[in-house]
Design goal:
The complex is a heterodimer of chains A (112) and B (845). Chain A has 112 residues and is an all-alpha fold. In chain A, 69% of the residues lie in helices and 0% in strands. Chain A is built from 4 helices and no strands. Chain B is mainly alpha-helical. Chain B has a domain at 661-841: Cytochrome c oxidase, subunit III, four-helix bundle (Four Helix Bundle (Hemerythrin (Met), subunit A)), CATH 1.20.120.80. The chains are: A mainly alpha (112), B mainly alpha (845). The interface between A and B is large, with 47 and 39 residues.
């Protein structure tokens, strides 16, 4: 079977993982700011923040399940395999970064 | 390695081909040099001009060290000192670092990627002239004693016209914006060129790692510069017309400036670092005599670094009173951002450990980089920890940190690159007797100057003070630091002398003095205007080519496009991922238009600076008109169909394909524009949430009829643009649709003018009105530019540059108008929603 050539669209996949992280950061920061300004209860605010983080982790999980493979896909040509590898590892890095940078939201005092 | 030509044409002598190509690609002598658009010429100009600004900025730095060498010194008064240190920082970051990396990118990238030039040569030239004129404005202001004096980051409210009533801040805002816009245009060009213009066969996994670094850096520039441009426009509008975006007494917020500035400012330092890291990733394998280890890991690391750098800007604002929880995200992000940097460092160390390093002058500077950058990185992680930062903020510890990272990440790799690539530029090798002492003077002087600043900072010395009391520990640390500065300056002076000595007395080099394996060495030295006499086919990673063997083959015309045709400047466009050739790109030749357009742009900036606003508007229209004129000679006035490009391959010209460089360029330009719009929307919400004196005394209201009319008109214009494209493709006359779209755009602009004129509250009375006016102004400006697109389409259609196969112009117009429709609709919705948002504020406790 001849290898599948890499499609140019694959290039945009490389930005997906960390775009999800960016979205998580922006939404968490916005929800936090709005929640504190409008004096949401601590529980509600923390729930909102945690939900945002979980949803974004879920999106990364979904992307991983449907699009990413770290091991080489024999159906892809070398360029496609390279892009696939890079995409998979950006997802892994983005997942860890979401945890590390936003994990404190479930622990720290909310609005002071 | 290229395969023997399958073309039926007889082999052509290298010299004959060289002469034909020089006739096409060379820039004329004398005054014609002002019309140069060739990347080699523009790249050298960028680097030389950046070096001049580095020298000026360096002198300014030394003046600060003279002032601070002793306590209570009277070398400079406060006002002079404020201008000197502000200009030192501004020049180093805006007029040296960014333009220098752009110059390196412009000069080297096409050569490393195996192509003949960048995608938009005239834009490259325009970018250079804008940089030169913007930098000149700032320098003349310095000489005239009206230089910016509010620190290189111009915090409000100090930079507002209440506390800085003079022209100083306006010089910064307008001058820096002028330079940054030119940098942004270059960034778009770099992205498009790297994606579409590489040697055939150079797929993304075969691209030299420098290409990945420049691609990611340019993408960062596209997203990072717009927030600064927006902030500068808003602050200048506040200073000039009284719109209170940053004035807390009228619903603005001084912190909004900090957010917008650092949203640019933090990615900026990685924008400066990454190209240098690309240089290191290119040189280290050469000197280690082994391929780079961890190519894929480095690609992942730089993508991660690029994104993460946008999520940690608040670490410059840890002391402004943001809640602890929010500080925590940015603190954690600022710590973890060290990981992708470390991945690169370890890849370099592994490459060195795996190979057999040669110790020479570039390697000395690489060693200098490792030591200084690691120290700077470690102090960065210290500053990322909030409690530590609260102690060190605004102290000399921070000054030490950023000089170590910038000096380490920029100065040392740059000097290494200088010694490495100067043989390519000049055809001569360094003399070296001066080079080694110069390095040690710079290294020792640098560490003496800046290491001691960690200590004096921890001992409590604040930054940006023009003098200090005679506290014993501060005194001797400052004195030694100043002595170190002079030692470093002597070192740099020796480097300059070394450069002159090399240019005059250096031994001439053969093609590849370093036995490197990248394509820029597979050409004559110094490079010819056309770079490659024929383009290579790449079937291996492009940092493993046999440059010495490839060069004669390419010179004989055995690659692609090994001939001259129609006097055209030809190169190839490739598939973004696979690198397979798919289009023949014909580039524009030398022209004075970029110079004239830059002069016009400079005129608009100067008129704004001196508050001749109507003249500024007229000059801005003239600039827009010149851009329309640029477009009139682009492309071809007839269909050609596929043309032979060598090796039995025929490709359509770029005017007749879908994935053409201008199309891609507009997409990335709209990403930049969209980032600016998003920053504006963020600003509106930020003021709504955080600014004092909300809600305003006057209840906001908007004329619903004008609002809906403006959006409806844009939808109609978008339909008109689509209709004109459809007609064109079907071979029918598109003029009626174009006129339809133009009328709709004019209607939209009139409705918007009505809206802006009736904004409530008055834009000068409260930030709510100011932000509404800004949103509507953005919409109106884009509708106006849509009219320019239509005008250009009309002129080019009449001139025969458009046909059912050559439809790029109309596609660009459709995309622009559709973008304007979407962002305009969002702007109108936000303006209409403002009363409700304001009403919600009443509910907060």
């Amino acid at each position: 079977m001849s290898a599948r050539p890499a499609h140019a669209d694959r290039l945009w996949l490389l930005t997906l993982g960390f775009s999800v992280w960016c979205s998580a950061l922006v939404i968490v920061y916005a929800v936090h700011s709005i929640g504190c300004t409008f004096a949401w209860s601590t529980g509600a605010l923390r729930m909102g923040l945690a939900l945002t983080i979980v949803v974004h982790l879920g999106v990364i999980g979904w992307l991983w399940r449907n699009y990413a493979r770290v091991s080489p896909d024999p159906a892809l040509d070398p360029t496609g395999a390279f892009l696939q590898w890079v995409f998979a590892w950006t997802l892994i890095a983005a997942f860890i970064t979401i945890f590390f940078t936003l994990g404190s939201t479930v622990l720290l005092t909310t609005c002071t | 390695m290229t395969t023997p030509t399958e073309d039926s044409r007889p082999p052509i002598l290298a010299l004959g081909l060289h002469r034909q190509l020089v006739q096409i690609w060379a820039t004329g002598p004398g005054l014609q040099r002002l019309a140069a658009v060739n990347h080699s010429i523009i790249g050298v100009r960028f680097m030389a001009t950046a070096f001049v600004f580095f020298a000026i900025g360096g002198v300014l730095g030394m003046l600060t060290r003279v002032q601070l060498a002793t306590p209570q010194a009277s070398f400079m008064d406060t006002q002079t000192y404020n201008q000197v240190f502000t200009m030192h920082g501004s020049m180093m970051l805006f007029l040296f670092a960014i333009p220098m990396l752009e110059g390196i990118a412009v000069y080297l990238t096409p050569k490393m990627l195996g192509t003949r030039d960048f995608a938009f040569p005239r834009l490259t030239a325009y970018g250079y002239w804008c940089y030169l004129f913007g930098g000149t404005i700032l320098t003349v202001a310095l000489i005239a004693g009206v230089a910016p004096n509010g620190g290189w980051f111009m915090y409000t409210p100090l930079s507002s016209n209440v506390y800085t009533p003079g022209i100083n801040a306006d010089v910064w805002l307008l001058g820096v914006t002028f330079v940054e816009i030119s940098a942004l245009t270059l960034a778009v060009e770099i992205v498009v060129s790297i994606l579409k213009m590489r040697a055939p066969g150079m797929s993304l996994d075969r691209m030299p790692i420098f290409g990945w670094y420049m691609l990611v850096t340019a993408l960062m520039m596209i997203v990072a510069f717009p927030p600064l441009i927006l902030g500068s426009i808003l602050l200048e509008t506040e200073r000039a017309f009284g719109l209170p975006f940053f004035d807390p007494t009228r619903g603005g917020d001084a912190l909004l400036w900090q957010h917008l500035f650092w949203l640019f400012g933090h990615p900026d330092v990685y924008i400066i670092f990454l190209p240098m890291a690309g240089i290191l990733s290119t040189m280290i394998p050469v000197f280690a005599n082994t391929p780079l280890i961890g190519y894929r890991a480095i690609v992942v690391a730089i993508i991660g670094l690029a994104f993460m750098s946008f999520g940690i800007w608040v670490h410059h604002m840890f002391t402004v009173g943001i809640p602890h929880l929010a500080l925590a995200f940015f603190s954690a992000g600022s710590a973890i951002v060290a990981v992708p940097t470390a991945v690169q460092l370890f890849a370099w160390l592994a490459t060195l450990a795996h190979g057999q390093p040669r110790w020479n002058v570039p390697m000395l500077y690489i060693f200098g980089f490792f030591s200084t950058f690691v120290i700077g990185g470690l102090t960065g992680v210290m500053l990322a920890i909030v409690p530590f930062d609260w102690q060190a903020h605004e102290s000399y510890f921070v000054v030490a940190h950023f000089h170590y990272v910038i000096g380490g990440a920029v100065a040392f790799p740059l000097l290494a690159a200088f010694y490495y690539w100067l043989p390519l530029l000049s055809g001569r090798r360094a003399v070296y007797q001066l080079s080694v002492p110069a390095f040690w003077l710079i290294f020792i002087g640098f560490n003496l100057t800046f290491f001691l600043m960690h200590l004096v900072g921890l001992l409590g010395m604040p930054r940006r003070i023009f003098t200090y009391p005679a506290i014993e520990s501060w005194v001797w640390l400052n004195l030694l630091s100043s002595v170190g500065g002079f030692i470093m300056t002597i070192g740099f002076a020796l480097v300059v002398i070394d450069l002159i000595a090399q240019l005059r007395y250096g031994r001439r080099v053969r093609r590849d003095p370093w036995k490197a394996a990248t394509l820029e060495w597979a050409m004559p030295i110094p490079p010819t205007p056309y770079a490659f006499a024929s383009l290579p086919r790449i079937d291996t990673r492009a940092d493993r080519v046999a440059a010495g063997q490839l060069a004669p083959s390419l010179a004989r015309g055995e690659g692609y496009l090994g001939f001259a045709r129609n006097g055209w400047q030809e190169t190839l466009g490739v598939h973004m991922a696979s690198g397979e050739p798919e289009q023949l790109i014909v580039l524009p030749r030398q022209t004075y238009l970029p110079l004239f357009t830059a002069l016009c742009t400079a005129g608009a900036v100067l008129f704004m600076l001196f508050q001749f606003y109507w003249l500024a508007l007229l000059t801005a229209f003239a600039t827009a008109g010149l851009f329309v004129i640029w477009g009139q000679s682009a492309g071809h006035a007839r269909d050609y169909g596929p043309l032979p490009v060598g090796h039995g391959l025929s490709l359509p010209p770029h005017t007749e394909v879908a994935g053409t460089p201008p199309w891609l360029a507009l997409i990335f330009a709209l990403i930049a524009d969209g980032t600016l719009f998003t920053s504006l929307v963020f600003g509106v919400f930020y003021l709504w949430i955080s600014a004092p004196n909300w809600p305003p005394a006057v209840k906001p209201d908007t004329n619903m009829l004008f609002a809906l009319a403006s959006v409806a008109a844009l939808f109609v214009a978008a339909a008109g643009a689509r209709g004109s494209l459809r007609s064109l493709v079907r071979g029918r006359a598109p003029q009626a649709w174009m006129i339809f779209a133009a009328v709709a755009l004019v209607t939209a602009m009139l409705a918007l003018a009505g809206l802006i004129g009736n904004v409530n509250p008055d834009p000068r009375e409260h930030a709510l009105g100011a932000t509404a006016a800004a949103l509507l102004g953005y919409f109106a400006l884009h509708a106006g530019i849509g009219l320019l697109f239509l005008l250009s389409n009309f002129m080019r259609f009449s001139g025969g540059f458009v046909s059912p196969r050559r439809i790029t112009d109309f596609r660009l117009t459709r995309l622009w108008i559709e973008y304007t429709t979407v962002t305009g609709a969002i702007a109108i919705v936000l303006v209409l929603a403002l009363p409700s948002l304001v009403g919600m504020l009443g509910a907060r406790p």
